[in-house]
From TrEMBL:
This is Ribosome hibernation promoting factor. Signal peptide: none annotated. Its main location: cytoplasm. InterPro entries: HPF/YfiA_ribosome-assoc, HPF_long/plastid, RHF-like, RHF/RaiA, Ribosom_S30AE_C, Ribosom_S30AE_C_sf.
Length: 191
């Protein structure tokens, strides 16, 4: 497994990197058999240290956790505990998907755009109906089942996930509703 441990405007010593690799490695090996990459970023916000970790699994799932504390090691421990809880909660589901999926998840190309907020005139009408593109980026769209998409949404703590439905190849969306439930948009079924 490949680890990428870094700090935002703080120095990360060799002892902390070794501690992170050993502790996080134990958690990952216990619950996820084929992790591919772990990214851990330490930063400082006011008086608190923040540890953000993202783990990519060969099944295409991504697990994320964040920990905060006044000490950097305590921030990592908080993050590690959240990751442990998250992976333990989904261990059965991860194992089931691991058994069903023999090959890694395929990712297709996609474009991602950031649009500027529209400016309103004094009378409340929008002056220009064409949005201004601020940034244009390349993104990856996974080809997974609906169940895997919901699990990915929950593991990553995201509010929305766009994916290619492995069943029919169409683009689908799963999202977290305001009432806490998960919504699924499948344009193919809207006939």
């Amino acid at each position: 497994m490949r680890y990428q441990i870094s700090g935002k405007q703080i120095d990360i010593g060799e002892a902390l990197q070794t501690h992170v690799k050993s502790e996080l490695g134990e958690v990952i090996e216990k619950y996820a058999q084929r992790p591919t990459e772990a990214t851990i970023v330490f930063s400082r916000v006011a008086h608190e240290h923040v540890c953000e970790s993202t783990i990519h699994l060969s099944t295409g799932l991504t697990a994320q956790a964040t920990g905060r504390a006044t000490e950097i090691y305590a921030a990592f421990e908080s993050c590690r505990e959240k990751m442990d809880k998250q992976l333990r909660r989904y261990k059965r589901r991860l194992r089931d998907h691991h058994r069903e999926r023999t090959a890694p998840v395929e990712f297709g190309p996609g474009s991602s755009y950031i649009l500027a907020a529209s400016e309103e005139a004094e009378d409340g009408e929008v002056e220009n109906l064409q949005p201004m593109v601020i940034a244009e980026m390349e993104t990856k769209v996974p080809s997974i089942t609906v169940g895997e998409a919901v699990m990915q949404l929950e593991l990553a703590g995201q509010s929305m996930l766009v994916f290619r439905n492995e069943g029919h190849g169409g683009v689908n969306v799963v999202y977290r509703r305001d009432d806490g439930n998960i919504g699924w948009i499948d344009p193919r079924n809207s006939k």
